[in-house]
TrEMBL record:
This is DUF1501 domain-containing protein. Coiled coil: none annotated. It holds the Pfam family DUF1501. It comes from Gimesia maris. InterPro entries: Alkaline_phosphatase_core_sf (IPR017850), DUF1501 (IPR010869), TAT_signal (IPR006311).
């Protein structure tokens, strides 16, 4: 029977926004936060088995890879602000030798007004840990317990000495805004293993959104289906997830059937709007999340021992520990990419470093190590990439030279550290070096493009072959930049 025409005085968006079922508002907040003109790409990501290109299909079905993957999922703990590699991961005896003396070289400051040429030796002791003997600071005792499972990268660089540009480089491949993030590219290229949860989830800090806000998990010009879904840092972690009691059950079912008919009719009338099918699929996913998300976010069934492993029994680390534990639960349930963000400038220690840096470390060190331990004991680490790091490190000289209590360090994007674990990587190794003062990466340098190419390789993807056609031209995460897969760190 031919369906009767429905005359509606409002737009579909007004219908969704005014609905009281909860699902509409969830979908809107998830998908329509960044409204942009609909693109009409001519071709999709290359078919991995045939040379011909097919019509773009926006969905989260599992896609074939370019080569056998080592990793299936990734958890990225992004330490926004610039953790000091010189005080945590990269010991430099020359800093101690020249402490308080003039730096014997050139320094590029970000904040010249507070700059000093005096060398600042690290106030914290380094010692060797694990069978590998990697030197780590006393600030990261948790990490020292899993050092044999990590690759410590000591030669990262982006060479753009400010937060925003370096964040864009680390997340999106270029220093300019508007491009899709790594999580969006991975979900676009690989699809999702869960039909009931988003493929890409961002977990924000209770202290506030990081610098650049939603740009940290944006889909850019990829379809909105590939944008990160934000989970709040406190309960309820997803707003409007469930319908009010008097509207649940059959009432909601009829409501969603009616909405589905409207969506499908609109899609039939506008067959060229490829992005529309992605939005419809996302609304359907939002409905499925009512049951699956609540269960995934519930920590009550985790043992006390597991919660203690994540530092949840300690008020200092409890909040970050909960987000790390939730990330493991999400990965177990088929989520592809989880991003755990620290707050705005949490690690930007221009001043009072002797108190602010230990405080930041105590908040995240035990939970991050607990995540590695837990994944390993559950047999998940081999196929889950874990990342810990920020967009920059710090300079070897004093900033704010107004007494020991006030001293800090300025930005340094020319050489800094981060660590990775699992997902086909070697464990118990360091890679790369900075100079004697920790200012510039000088050996086995790893750029943001190298980092992205390596991660994509571990997921079975060639970063230069995974394309999206925009304005008639193929776009990639690497975007034509020089890059290499860092094969030395791959097991």
């Amino acid at each position: 029977m031919k369906q009767q025409s429905i005359s509606a005085p409002h737009s579909r968006r007004h219908f969704l926004a005014s609905g009281s079922m909860g699902i509409g508002s969830l979908a809107l907040s998830w998908l329509l936060n960044q409204e942009q003109a609909l693109a009409n790409p001519a071709a999709n990501r290359p078919d991995l088995n045939q040379p011909a290109l097919e019509k773009q299909q926006f969905d989260l079905t599992v896609k074939p890879t370019h080569h056998p993957p080592r990793a299936k999922a990734m958890i990225s703990m992004f330490m926004q602000g610039g953790p000091s590699h010189l005080d945590m991961f990269d010991p430099k005896p020359m800093l101690q030798k020249y402490d308080g003396k003039k730096f014997p070289g050139d320094i590029k400051y970000d904040n010249a007004a507070q700059a000093s040429s005096k060398v600042l030796g690290s106030p914290w002791k380094f010692s060797k840990h694990g069978e590998c003997g990697t030197e780590l600071s006393e600030l990261v005792p948790g990490l020292s317990e899993v050092v044999d499972d990590i690759v410590l990268m000591r030669s990262m660089h982006t060479s753009v000495n400010n937060h925003g540009q370096s964040i864009y480089a680390m997340h999106s491949g270029r220093i300019l805004p508007g491009r899709p993030t790594l999580g969006s590219w991975l979900t676009y290229g690989l699809g999702a293993e869960s039909e009931n949860l988003p493929a890409y989830i961002a977990m924000v800090d209770p202290g506030g959104a990081p610098v650049l806000g939603v740009d940290n998990w944006t889909n850019g010009w990829l379809p909105s289906l590939y944008q990160g879904t934000v989970i709040r840092p406190k309960e309820p972690r997803i707003l409007n997830l469930n319908a009010p009691p008097h509207l649940s059950g059959k009432a909601q079912e009829k409501y969603l059937d009616f909405l589905g008919n409207l969506n499908q009719r609109h899609l039939n009338q506008h067959p060229g709007e490829d992005d529309l099918s992605a939005r419809i699929a996302s609304y359907e996913l939002a409905a499925k999340m009512q049951t699956a998300a609540g269960e995934a976010l519930d920590l009550s069934k985790e043992t006390k021992a597991t919660q203690a492993m994540y530092g949840i029994d300690d008020p200092t680390s409890a909040e970050f520990g909960k987000r790390c534990l939730i990330s493991r639960r999400l990965i177990e349930r088929g989520v592809r990419f989880v991003q755990i963000m620290t707050g705005n400038q949490t690690w930007d220690h221009h001043t009072s470093m002797r108190t602010s840096l230990p405080r930041a470390c105590k908040r995240v060190d035990v939970p991050a190590a607990g995540l590695v331990k837990d994944l390993k004991q559950r047999g998940l680490l081999d196929e889950t990439l874990v990342h810990w790091g920020g967009e920059m490190g710090r300079l070897p000289v004093i900033q704010n030279d107004a007494g020991m209590a006030k001293q800090g360090r300025d930005h340094n994007t020319y050489g800094f550290s981060m660590w990775l674990a699992g997902g086909g990587l070697k464990g118990g190794m360091t890679y790369g070096e900075t100079d004697d003062f920790g200012h510039h990466a000088i050996k086995d340098k790893v750029s943001h493009s190298d980092y992205h190419a390596t991660l994509m390789h571990l997921f079975g993807l060639d970063a230069e072959r995974l394309t999206f056609t925009r304005n008639g031209a193929p776009q990639t995460l690497i975007d034509g930049q020089e890059n290499r897969v860092v094969k030395e760190i791959i097991a």
